[in-house]
Design a protein that fits this description.
The protein is an alpha+beta fold and 281 residues long. Among the domains are: 103 residues, Beta Barrel (Barwin-like endoglucanases); 83 residues, 2-Layer Sandwich (Alpha-Beta Plaits), CATH 3.30.70.1070. A six-stranded mixed β-barrel has the order 1-5-2-4-3-6. The longest helix is centred in the N-terminal third of the chain and has 25 residues. The N and C termini lie far apart (113 Å). Its EC number is 4.2.2.-. Lytic transglycosylase with a strong preference for naked glycan strands that lack stem peptides.
């Protein structure tokens, strides 16, 4: 078949042919969910699902942490933090740092100066520098405090709070209250105690706090002959009396310290002393 255009006009013919071509696109058709195939449905639903996931994540992260004490955390009244459980203890708490008791401005067991307006407390065995959540069992108020001192050295009490801590827990006006203690981290979340502390700051059995040099010497020699090394620690009572705390042993496990305390109590049962467990520092 012969071309209608001369050979010299091929380029012109091609240009005219292309010029006559019109490309038209159909207008977009809205996608109706459930129609148009799986791919269209996924394109329609993906951004909506992403919004729901982001909203759920935001609500979860902004919710305040809530937790309950573990039923297997140490026994109340002297709990341990074995097996990764938080230390839990219940008992009577008192407070110190009030006007006239003489503790404000004095060094604590940790070496820092005691400030009644800080959130600190004294405990016999919890590691210095650790944190505890204290709950007043009478009104359910709570506060997180840092252990920086030793005490209380009064029978039947488990914790001595600063004046500020007692005010926040609502018992500064009554002197004592029943509390629950739980070991936590600096953020207030339950945490186990570090077992390495038992080697760094071992347990001791405090037998008595005496002021008479003769009584101190007599008791020291008697305890050394029966139970081994005895240490003396200088301190001042709330009434301003200088005394020496007479302590026996250096134990890296609480169980050993408890056994020694029982033996010492039996040995001195007629002396009116009540040995208890504390730390070297």
């Amino acid at each position: 078949m012969l071309s209608p255009f001369p050979p010299t006009n091929w380029s012109k013919a091609c240009a005219l042919w292309i010029h006559e071509i019109h490309v038209a696109f159909d207008p977009p058709v809205p996608v109706v969910p459930g129609k148009g195939g799986l791919l269209r449905l996924m394109r329609w639903s993906t951004p909506r699902v992403a919004v729901l996931v982001a909203l759920s994540f935001t609500l979860h992260c902004t919710r305040p942490p809530a937790y309950l004490p573990s039923p297997t955390a140490g026994p109340l009244g002297g709990g341990s933090s074995a097996d990764g459980q938080a230390y839990v203890e219940e008992g009577v708490a008192s407070w110190y740092g009030g006007d006239g008791d003489g503790f404000a401005g004095r060094p604590t067991a940790s070496g820092e100066i005691f400030d009644p307006e800080q959130y600190t407390c004294a405990h016999r065995t919890l590691p210095l520098g650790s944190f505890v959540e204290v709950e007043n069992l009478d009104n359910r108020k709570r506060a997180v405090l840092r252990v920086n001192d030793r005490g209380p050295f009064v029978k039947g009490r488990v914790l001595d709070l600063s004046k500020r801590g007692a005010q926040d827990l609502g018992f500064a006006g009554q002197g004592t209250t029943r509390v629950r203690i739980r070991s936590v981290n600096a953020m207030g979340l339950p945490t186990a105690l570090d077992p390495a502390v038992d080697r760094i700051d071992p347990f001791v059995v405090q037998v008595a706090a005496l002021s008479d040099p003769k009584n101190i010497d007599s008791l020291t020699r008697e305890l050394e002959n029966t139970f081994g090394p005895v240490s003396l620690q200088d301190t001042v009572t709330r009434g301003g009396l200088s005394v020496k705390r007479v302590r026996v042993g250096s134990y890296t496990s609480r169980q050993e310290a408890e056994q020694a305390a029982e033996e010492i109590t039996k040995h001195l049962k007629d002396r009116g002393v009540e040995p208890f467990i504390t730390r070297q520092r």
